[in-house]
Design goal:
The complex is a heterodimer of chains A (307) and B (368). Chain A has 307 residues and is an all-alpha fold. Chain A contains 13 helices and two strands; from the N terminus they run H-H-H-H-E-H-E-H-H-H-H-H-H-H-H. In chain B, helix 3 packs across helix 13 and helix 6 packs across helix 7. The chains are: A mainly alpha (307), B mainly alpha (368). At the A-B interface, helix 4, helix 10, helix 12 and helix 13 of A face helix 6, helix 7, helix 12 and helix 14 of B. Chain A: Pfam families: BPD_transp_2.
């Protein structure tokens, strides 16, 4: 039974879509936030996301447990992160370029090993029906919230607390702001960055598992359309703050949901343009928040992004 | 004897100081390429596939006969242009990776210009198409340089975002405004008239003119970067932007100019794909040439002349991809994995420059 709620379906579908679409943005961006706070940039998270989507789907299919898939995706992401962190340790190696190489390698490996898993159907991650109080099916549909979204939101809060109030957070911030200062107080910047990049990779891997195990909920070679890369831009917009990353992810999710939401009420012209809305939004925000002469507020001092 | 030993080091020293860095710049990337292919061999061996068979098939399908060379060379053109789109901005220290977008919009612009100039004689039509592709591609990537200079927007992320936007725009227009109603299954622009299709070069094998113009573009780019004061200024700015500004170099104009030139090159890739291969603009333009171009440029260490052999090598890999898949029962992403591994080893090899003793003049002097 469906209730006709007319054009109200659009904002409702955007809200529901924002929650659904934002989860991978959320995981990749808080992962990248962690890595960048330590002074490195990992542009390869798009590759990590795709590989996470593939490995999560494959393991969920083989074991029958979607959570085993999430774990596998996190492990695979951590391995990519470790690899990135290890290579960047060498003198003269450019972390931006390595990120691009790992983006291609991650996608290549995901397509290579993921070929046999395009057909089979893996179990989905469960959703929590937060719309139980309403009897309008559209509201219920919009508020079907996946557990990973809630975990991601909690992680964002926890990470903000970690940066502000814990020794680990302080260590990461010192290393990110000045390699020399970190060395002077006896920290090993390379180790801190290695671990931060690995943890960031693990989070991006989980974001990928969400793509293949919940929404859109299947594995194929077009499973990601640049979410991993947009999330990197989103971190800049969010001023390297995990809480802002959460709100920015929701905003991007909403932009991503615009096209499908309009399509669901019959607006089909300009489909490709609505599809491009998140990219336009990202670019506009980047232009708006960047500055030609001064380093950005909150930017870690050692980040090569702003030179 | 005493005269000889005191006189020789200076003369040798000059020659060594000149040639050793050049030798280093060839040996290290070549070594890294071989190392990458070796790592990929291990990958194949672990999966129970024979690396020897793999490379033999690549040689057979890509480089062994006139037919395979034709197969390879016909794929080189877009890689040359896409490589330039990365290499030219890289001279200024910019990592631009959105060439795919300029290829898409350049191809569309060429197709539309071709239809608008259908009445014109071939040479005029080709010029209109080429210029349209270069202007659109140049404006698209030049905008990335402009944003970098005026707003400090990171060029790597901006260029990739703009590539996604460009592809969306191309799809939108190919399915709407410029759609040929007769193209049912695959939305395309109307086919170009026969006299505006680019043919093969008169060299005995079927390789279209895009190859020639790609080589020419690389040569011109090399002259610009390595033989002109503009190129020299760009290199200084690439080493240290602040120092270049202090010296009064027009950094802003250099950045916008080099990104626009790179984009114009990528636009030409789209033009040749449309005019020589597809005959109209459609989704076939988006096959990842822009991304392979990133690898081409990094393998060539952003030297426009080195782009030529690298592009031929990678075109050979891609030309043999189909045969490798069928004969060895490997997925089509195999070449992508190989390219990714080679990319990583090439970047890793950057750490070796200045650290290998035999490339230091001192090593040879101490010997003498």
């Amino acid at each position: 039974m469906s209730t006709d709620i007319g054009m109200w379906g659009v904002p409702l579908a955007i809200l529901g879509g924002a929650i659904r679409v934002s989860t991978p943005f959320l995981f990749v961006s808080i992962g990248e936030c962690l890595t960048e706070r330590s002074g490195r940039i990992n542009l390869g998270l798009e590759g990590t996301l795709v590989f996470g989507a593939m490995s999560g789907y494959a393991i969920a299919f083989e074991t029958g447990s979607p959570w085993a898939g999430v774990l596998a995706a996190a492990l695979a992401g951590a391995v990519f992160g470790l690899f990135h962190g290890w290579i960047c340790k060498f003198k003269g190696v450019n972390d931006v370029a390595i990120g691009i190489a790992l983006m291609l390698l991650g996608m290549g490996l995901a397509f290579f090993f993921g070929k046999p898993y395009i057909q089979p159907v893996a179990p989905d991650l469960p959703a929590i029906p937060l719309g139980w109080w309403s009897d309008i099916p559209q509201v219920q549909a919009a508020l079907q919230v996946n557990a990973l979204f809630i975990i991601g939101a909690a992680l964002a809060v926890a990470m903000a607390w970690m940066f502000r109030s814990t020794k680990i957070g302080l260590t990461i911030r010192v290393v990110g702001d000045s390699t020399d200062a970190a060395r002077a107080i006896g920290l090993n910047p390379n180790t801190v960055r290695l671990l931060s990049t690995a943890a960031g990779g693990a989070l991006a891997g989980v974001g990928g598992a969400y793509l293949s195990l919940y929404y859109p909920g299947s594995w194929n070679e077009g499973v990601s359309s640049g979410q991993g890369l947009m999330a990197v831009a989103l971190v800049i917009f969010a001023r390297w703050n995990p809480i802002y990353c959460f709100w920015a992810a929701l905003l991007f999710g909403g932009a991503g949901a615009l096209g499908p939401a309009l399509q669901s009420v019959g607006v089909t012209s300009g489909y490709y343009l609505f599809f491009a809305a998140p990219y336009v939004l990202t670019l506009a925000l980047l232009i708006f928040t960047s500055s030609p002469d001064k380093a950005m507020d909150g930017a870690p001092g050692e980040l090569s992004l702003n030179k | 004897m005493a005269d000889v030993t005191t006189a020789q080091p200076t003369r040798h020293g000059v020659a060594l100081a000149k040639w050793l860095p050049r030798l280093e710049a060839v040996v290290i990337p070549l070594g890294a390429l071989i190392a990458g292919l070796a790592v990929f061999s291990v990958f194949l061996a672990v999966l129970g596939k024979s690396p020897v068979d793999f490379y033999a098939l690549i040689y057979k399908a890509g480089f062994s006969s006139a037919f395979s060379w034709q197969n390879t060379l016909s794929r080189v053109s877009p890689l040359l242009f896409a490589g330039l789109c990365v290499a030219l901005p890289a001279r200024l220290g910019l990592v631009v990776i959105g060439g795919e977008g300029a290829i898409a919009l350049g191809g569309l612009a060429a197709a539309v210009a071709g239809l608008a100039f259908a009445w014109a004689p071939s040479f005029l039509g080709f010029i209109a198409m080429g210029v349209a592709a270069m202007i659109i591609g140049g404006a698209w990537i030049g905008a990335v340089g402009w944003l970098r200079i005026r707003r400090g927007v990171n060029e790597t992320i901006a260029s990739l975002l703009m590539a996604y936007i460009a592809i969306a725009l191309m799809n939108h227009w190919v399915e709407g405004l410029f759609r040929d109603p007769a193209s049912l299954n695959k939305p395309s622009t109307a086919p170009l008239p026969e006299h505006l299709r680019i043919g093969d070069m008169p060299v005995g094998i079927d390789v279209h003119w895009g190859f020639f113009f790609g080589l020419l573009a690389c040569l011109l780019a090399w002259i610009l970067t390595d033989r002109t004061t503009t190129g020299f200024a760009a290199r200084i700015a690439g080493d240290n932007i602040r120092a270049a500004e202090v010296q009064g170099l027009p950094v802003g104009r250099l950045v916008i100019g080099f990104t626009a030139l790179g984009g114009a090159a990528a636009g030409l890739a789209g033009f040749f794909e449309v005019a020589a291969i597809h005959g109209s603009a459609n989704g076939s333009l988006i096959v990842g040439y822009g991304y392979t171009g990133i690898l081409v440029a990094f393998l060539a260490r952003h030297n426009p002349l080195a782009i030529i052999p690298v592009a031929i090598l990678l075109a050979g890999f891609e030309a043999s991809s189909g045969l490798v898949q069928r004969r060895m029962d490997l997925p089509d992403a195999t070449i992508l994995v190989m390219e990714g591994i080679v990319f990583v080893t090439i970047l890793l090899s950057e750490t070796l420059y200045g650290r290998i003793a035999i490339f230091k003049p001192g090593f040879w002097r101490a010997d003498a």
